[in-house]
Amino acid sequence: EWSAGKTVKPPDQLELTEAELKEEFTRVLTANNPHAPQNIVRYNFKERAYKPISHIDQTAIHFSLNGNLILKDSDEGRRQSLRSGNASEKAPVETSAEASEGSGVKDEGSTEDTQAAEGAETAKAAEAAEEEEPPPTKEKERKLANQFNFIERSSRTINNPLRERASQSEPTPCKNFSGNANQWVIYDAYIEEVQKMEKSKEKEKPKAQTAKKEEKGKKLTSLESQSDDITKISNAAKIVERMVNQNTFDDIAQDFKYFEDASDEYRDHRGTLLPLWKFQYDKTKRLSVTAISWNPKYKDLFAVGYGSYDFMKQSQGMLVLYTMKNPSFPEYVFSSESGIMCLDIHDDHPHLMAVGFYDGNVAIYNLKKATSQPSYKSSGKSGKHTDPVWQVKWQKDDMDNNLNFFSVSSDGRIVSWTLVKNELVYTDIIKLPAEGTVMQGPEGLQLQTFGCGTSFDFHKKIDYLFLVGTEEGKIYKCSKCYSSQFLDVFEAHHMAVDSISWNPYHLKVFISCSSDWTVKIWDHTIKTPMFVYDLNAAVGDVAWSPYSSTVFAAVTTDGKAHVFDLNINKYEALCNQIVVAKKKNKITHIQFNPMYPIVIIGDERGQIVCLKLSPNLRKMPKEKKGQEVKKGPEVEIAKLEKLLSLVREP
């Protein structure tokens, strides 16, 4: 078969195609030994325990032979070569001595006859030897010594005895003392400390003044002086920027201050909204306006929260504060990892802002601190919400004068947050039930489900009373005193309650709006609404005006703003005006300024528009000859009460 050139195939060989035969298989060879053990343990004398070895030897020995070779260049090799050389030199000297001794013995044994006979021959031989040169003596070949004979010398070192350091140190000196402490002792110690600090400050003052006088002649190059210069420049630059803006938008500033639409006289009580400034920041163009709030102290300053209502496109959030004195750039900018869904500014501390985030956290920002991060923030450990926070509201300080605010979320919890020792401490006030609160789970378990809170508002006078709007369209009248019971339930809307607000004048009236296109005005003692308005689109926000008990404004998702005055027209709005022109853009929020006759409106593109109300939308009672016009809360309450008496069932 071999001679014929045929290839012999084993019987179990696979039948492969040409493509399969040509296919290359690469194998990566690594230096790691697959058979190396991974769990070697050695006794650690220091720790007196068996410890696993982290470094494993990966070498695999295929052949090993214990030999007795020595390197020639090593010290021991040199010594051995010297020894072998000395032995070879001694050998030829010994052999020559033996030969001479043997010849002497033979001479003694020879007879005198032979000496006489051979005397003549030796004489001749001696003469001949003198004439001829002696032949060179041949050196005997050195005998190579065996270089493989050596002794392995091994030695063993003695392990040092282990010593514990604890036994070497001296015991720490201890002293027992006892005493009583109460509030007065602590207070006295505290007062003493304060007095010491004040004395030390007084001592430092004259030193600082003398040092200042010495440094007056020197150049100020320290970092502190540089930072002072920058702050001075920044303040001056801010004033200059505002002046430039007021010059640029001078016509708008004049309109804001003095313009009154004269054509209102011919409009039969209908009014208009005059656009003033537009506020926009480049980094918020892709975010929606999710919250607006005016500052209670500085009437030109307002805060805007940016996030997204599209739950598939959640990204970062921003908190931005604008002033009407500078519409081109914000006064403060804070960025956050999660979208901001709501905010509220404290009435007594206008530098503090409570903020609710999409991820369920709440935080407090402090405008006085020059940091971009919130001063206080909740966390998973401190009881944050599990769903987006839809509204936050500051409340009066508690009994210990700690700041506190409330939040409502889709997880059905209404939580009170108190700032205690620089930490946010939470208390669950109430949990909202859902329809069919008990749900059947696996294996017959009964799971309790909670309603989704979307908005709430606290009563202006009755401290414990508040209203909560839910995703199911219900409005719950609740009390801070009862955590498991509601005072009343209103079947208000067919869809989520987007906003709810008490009237600033009348103690019984509140307003609600919903995605079911309606705005409803309620008396909280009556289960049915007093007024219902259908606005032909989902209503995003509603707000009472601060100057009249009968004026309110609402915004709808079709880009319109609606302003009502119940005192003039109970049936329809006095103003329906498109504020946002672009398609795919919705209005989200509206707020009245507490002092000026203007509103601000936010949309889904991150833009804020400021609009002025025309005279017809803020009509005051006319003065009659010889009579003073009554003004004040009593007049406003009476005006709304008169309207409600017409609607109430006898």
Report on the architecture of this protein.
The structure is a single chain. With 650 residues, the chain is α+β, with helices and mostly antiparallel strands. It contains 7 helices and 32 strands. A 4-stranded antiparallel beta sheet has the order 3-32-31-30, with helices on one face. Strands 4-5-6-7 form a 4-stranded antiparallel beta sheet, with no helix packed on it. The longest helix has 35 residues, at 75-109. It has a domain at 266-619 and 630-648: Methylamine Dehydrogenase, Chain H. The model is unreliable at 103-112 and 436-441 (pLDDT under 50). It has helices at 18-22, 75-109, 112-131, 183-215, 223-248, 250-258, 633-647; strands at residues 41-44, 49-52, 273-279, 288-294, 301-307, 317-323, 332-336, 340-345, 352-357, 362-366, 376-377, 389-395, 404-409, 413-420, 423-431, 433-440, 446-450, 453-458, 465-470, 474-479, 488-491, 497-502, 509-514, 518-523, 531-534, 539-544, 551-556, 560-565, 575-578, 587-592, 598-603, 608-613. The N and C termini lie far apart (122 Å). Residues 168-177 have a biased composition (Polar residues). Residues 116-126 have a biased composition (Low complexity).
What would the principal axes of the Cα set say about the shape? elongated
CATH fold assignment of the domain at 266-619 and 630-648: Methylamine Dehydrogenase, Chain H
Name given to the CATH architecture of the domain at 266-619 and 630-648: 7 Propeller
In CATH, what is the homologous superfamily of the domain at 266-619 and 630-648? Answer: YVTN repeat-like/Quinoprotein amine dehydrogenase
Number of helices: 7
Helix proportion: 10-25%
Which regions are unreliable across 5 or more consecutive residues at pLDDT < 50?
A: 103-112, 436-441
Structural class: alpha+beta
As a whole number of angstroms, the C-alpha radius of gyration is 52 Å
Q: What is the typical, i.e. mean, pLDDT? A: 78
Query: Mind describing the biggest β-sheet?
Result: 4 strands, antiparallel
